[in-house]
């Protein structure tokens, strides 16, 4: 699983860089990928990325300076702020999602439709016991 994951990750990073998002680092991308559709608190990003709050804050600062994210008030808690994708972040996310779909098509061509469906099903089932954020 690790080798297939790293291959997919490297392909996504290379593709978004080729599309003009060449200032986005792998570490920044790993944090940004965890931002929910309505924004995510910095402490939650740090926990999900399994990094310190200070590291997450540093990476979010870089993402904000590059125009990928913005910090906005949390509507559920006036003291808190959310990290939310800015338009540039949404654009790179859309590009990454297209690359993910291309990778899945390539894997299906290699494995065949039946094995790909079995792989997807098995990974979704494993998520139930391995992903604390699902």
TrEMBL record:
<feature type="domain" description="HTH marR-type">
    <location>
        <begin position="1"/>
        <end position="128"/>
    </location>
</feature>
<dbReference type="GO" id="GO:0003700">
    <property type="term" value="F:DNA-binding transcription factor activity"/>
</dbReference>
<dbReference type="GO" id="GO:0006950">
    <property type="term" value="P:response to stress"/>
</dbReference>
<protein>
    <submittedName>
        <fullName>MarR family transcriptional regulator</fullName>
    </submittedName>
</protein>
<dbReference type="InterPro" id="IPR000835">
    <property type="entry name" value="HTH_MarR-typ"/>
</dbReference>
<dbReference type="InterPro" id="IPR036390">
    <property type="entry name" value="WH_DNA-bd_sf"/>
</dbReference>
<dbReference type="InterPro" id="IPR039422">
    <property type="entry name" value="MarR/SlyA-like"/>
</dbReference>
<dbReference type="Pfam" id="PF12802">
    <property type="entry name" value="MarR_2"/>
</dbReference>
<dbReference type="InterPro" id="IPR036388">
    <property type="entry name" value="WH-like_DNA-bd_sf"/>
</dbReference>
């Amino acid at each position: 699983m690790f080798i297939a994951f790293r291959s997919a990750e490297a392909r996504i990073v290379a593709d978004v860089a080729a599309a003009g998002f060449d200032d986005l680092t792998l570490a920044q991308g790993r944090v940004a990928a965890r931002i929910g559709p309505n924004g995510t608190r910095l402490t939650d990003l740090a926990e999900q990325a399994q990094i310190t709050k200070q590291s997450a804050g540093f990476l979010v600062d870089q993402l904000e300076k590059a125009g990928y994210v913005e910090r906005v008030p949390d509507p559920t808690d006036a003291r808190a702020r959310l990290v939310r994708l800015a338009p540039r972040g949404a654009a790179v996310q859309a590009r990454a999602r297209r690359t993910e779909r291309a990778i899945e098509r390539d894997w299906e061509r290699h494995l065949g439709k039946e094995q790909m469906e079995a792989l997807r099903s098995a990974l979704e089932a494993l998520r139930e016991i391995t992903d604390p954020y699902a």
